[in-house]
Amino acid sequence: MGHGISEAIVDPIQRPDSPAIRLHNVDKRFGEHTVLDQVSLSVDPGQVLALIGPSGAGKSTLLRCINLLERPTGGTITVDGVTIEAGHTVSANELAKLRSRVGMVFQSFNLFPHMTALKNIALPQQRVLGRSKKEAEDRAHALLKRVGLADKAQQYPTRCSGGQQQRIAIARALALDPKVMLFDEPTSALDPEVGLEVLRVMRELADEGMTMAVVTHEMQFARNVSDHLVVMSQGRILEEGDPRQIFANPQQQRTREFLRAVLERE
User: Fold this and answer.
1) DSSP string, 119-188
2) Taking CA 83 as the corner, what is the angle to CA 78 and CA 87, rounded to the nearest 5 degrees?
3) Of 196, 174, 175, whose CA–CA distance to 187 is shortest?
4) Contacts of 257 (CB under 8 A, 6+ apart)
5) Which of 74, 88, 99, 214 is 20–30 Å from 208 (CA)?
6) Does residue 11 carry a pLDDT above 90?
7) What was the pLDDT predicted at 154?
């Protein structure tokens, strides 16, 4: 059986309708437990996809499958022209090719505590992209300014607030020039006021045309910032479409129950 990854020749001028992310019949099982069940969806370039649903719906696992932190059990995943088929061998170089296109921001910040904010952002550029120290640090300074933390370059993560650490993590992901950004509940570990700082940066990225897939419990973000909404439950897509339409008139009873519960908490 050959490698399960291939690269289509994608010309954005000739193929403006080519999705940035496409999942086709993606399954993920852990033993007898099915976490994702025949999930198919696509995200166009520049589009913001919000994934919502109850805990255990498979949302975070879906994101982790997109960049192969979890290997799908079935189906195919395409990111920026790179296609992965479940069950086929993927070499280290091919895995690196896929992940170079995808930036990911987690609930936990995953910063190196013994490195300054500047070095946390610069070092991956040197290791992954082969940039010189000066190039990497110049880019890191620019990104720290972009996320409102120009004055934190020499601070260590433990001296920064949770919101500041998450913004440093976003800058680190952006430093590798990804085509797609994945956010896995990036504000869930933060106090509401602090989380607003992170959401502001994400709104700016959306305004700038970054392709994003966001697992979130922030219903205002899902309704007002995302272009496309997917509601998941028990590993399946319940419904998807225009966020405002789904919030105003959900078609599925399970969606109505979920939205009623989360909106009553706001």
Assistant:
1) HHHHHHIIIII---HHHHHHHHHHHHHHTT-GGGTT--GGGS-HHHHHHHHHHHHHTT--SEEEEESTTT
2) 115
3) 196
4) none
5) 99
6) no
7) 97
Helix (H, G, I), strand (E, B) or coil at 217: coil
Crossing angle (nearest 10°) for helices 162-174 and 133-146: 130
- How far, CA to CA in Å, does 203 sit from each of 48, 64, 180, 200, 222? 10, 22, 15, 5, 11
Dist CA 227 CA 242 (whole Å): 7
How many CA atoms does the CB half-sphere of 131 hold within 13 Å?
19
First to last CA, the chain: 51
Q: How far apart are CA 218 and CA 192, in angstroms?
A: 10
Query: How far out from the chain centre does Cα 29 lie?
Result: 21
**pLDDT given at position 81:** 86
Q: How confident is the prediction for the chain on average, in pLDDT?
A: 90
Q: What is the DSSP letter of 114?
A: T
Of 93, 5, 76, 70, residue with least CA distance to 42: 76
CA-CA distance, 44 to 99, in Å (whole number)?
18
CA neighbor of 41 nearest in space, from 232, 186, 220, 223:
232
Would the CA dihedral through 239, 245, 247, 251 be positive or negative? negative
User: Which ranges constitute the DSSP H helices of 29-147?
Assistant: 59-66, 92-99, 117-124, 133-146
17, 38, 50: which is closest to 240 by C-alpha? 50
- Distance between CA atoms of residues 255 and 230, nearest Å: 10
Strand order in the sheet with 211-215: 102-105, 180-184, 211-215, 48-52, 228-233, 236-241
